[in-house]
Design the sequence.
C-alpha cells in the first residue's frame, strides 16, 4: 500500500502521512498535520494546525479542519484538534482546535458523521458514533456523549453537555444540558421525552427503558425541585445502570441548568 498524492495538492514538509493515504486535487496539508493509515482527502480539503486524523477517515471538498479557533481570546498558542478513526466529514465542515482557556484540545471520537456545513468549535469533546446532520452548529467547550444524533440546523450554546444516546431535533436551539437518552426539541429547546427508539437501537432491555421512564417522570414531574427529586430516588430505581447514568450526569453538572419538559404532555 502506498500514499497517493495528486500533483495539484500541497503537502508541506513535516506532515506525517500513514500508509495508503489518498490526497486529492487542490488539497492543502499543513506541516504539523498527522494523517493516519487509509485517510482520504477527496479534493479541496484544507487540514491545518496541529491536527491529527485517525485511520480511514474521509474528508470531502471544502472542509476546513484545524484553523485558528473563532475565539477573540486566542493569541496563537499551540493547541490541537484530534479526530478519530472511520469518521465521515462532508462538504464545508469546519472544526477548530482548542484554546488555552480550556484543555487546549478539541477531540472527536470514532465512527462519527458530519454532514455538509456542520461546525465543531474550540475545546469541544465528542464521543463515538455521533451524527451531525447538515448545518449543525456546536459552540465552544461543549461535551457530547456517544451515539448522539443532531437534526439539521440544530444550534448548541457554549459549555452545554449532552448525554449518551440523546437526540437533538432539527432547528433546535439548545442552551441547557440534555440528560442521557433525552430528546430536545424547539427553540429554545425543551425536553420532549426520552429517545426510546435510540434506546432500543442501543440494545437496552425493556426493563431498562421502563426504569428510565419512571425516573424521568420522578425527576421532571415538577412536584419538587429537580435537585431534591434526584436525591430522593427510591433504591428500587437507582440500582438500574441506565438510571445511574442519568443520575450521575445530572449530579456531575453541579449547578448547570438542565433542559426540562415544557409541560406535562412531555412526560413519557
Sequence:
Amino acid at each position: 500500500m502506498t500514499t497517493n498524492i495528486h500533483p495539484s495538492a500541497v503537502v508541506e514538509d513535516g506532515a506525517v502521512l500513514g500508509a495508503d493515504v489518498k490526497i486529492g486535487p487542490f488539497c492543502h496539508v499543513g506541516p504539523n498535520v498527522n494523517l493516519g493509515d487509509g485517510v482520504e482527502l477527496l479534493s479541496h480539503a484544507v487540514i491545518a494546525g496541529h491536527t491529527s486524523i485517525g485511520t480511514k477517515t474521509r474528508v470531502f471538498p471544502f472542509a476546513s479542519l484545524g484553523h485558528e479557533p473563532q475565539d477573540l481570546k486566542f493569541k496563537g498558542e499551540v493547541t490541537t484538534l484530534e479526530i478519530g478513526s472511520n469518521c465521515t466529514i462532508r462538504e464545508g465542515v469546519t472544526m477548530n482546535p482548542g484554546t488555552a482557556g480550556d484543555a487546549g484540545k478539541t477531540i472527536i471520537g470514532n465512527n462519527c458523521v458530519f454532514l455538509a456545513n456542520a461546525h465543531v468549535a474550540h475545546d469541544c469533546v465528542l464521543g463515538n458514533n455521533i451524527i451531525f446532520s447538515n448545518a449543525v452548529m456546536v459552540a465552544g467547550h461543549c461535551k457530547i456523549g456517544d451515539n448522539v444524533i443532531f437534526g439539521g440546523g440544530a444550534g448548541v450554546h457554549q459549555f452545554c453537555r449532552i448525554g449518551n444516546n440523546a437526540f437533538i431535533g432539527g432547528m433546535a436551539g439548545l442552551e441547557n444540558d440534555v440528560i442521557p437518552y433525552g430528546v430536545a426539541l424547539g427553540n429554545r429547546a425543551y425536553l420532549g421525552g426520552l429517545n426510546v427508539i435510540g434506546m432500543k437501537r442501543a440494545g437496552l432491555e425493556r426493563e431498562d427503558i421502563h426504569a428510565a421512564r419512571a425516573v424521568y417522570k420522578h425527576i421532571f414531574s415538577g412536584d419538587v425541585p429537580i435537585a431534591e427529586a434526584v436525591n430522593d430516588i427510591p433504591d428500587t430505581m437507582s440500582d438500574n445502570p441506565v438510571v445511574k447514568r442519568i443520575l450521575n450526569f445530572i449530579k456531575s453538572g453541579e449547578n448547570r441548568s438542565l433542559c426540562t419538559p415544557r409541560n406535562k404532555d412531555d412526560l413519557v
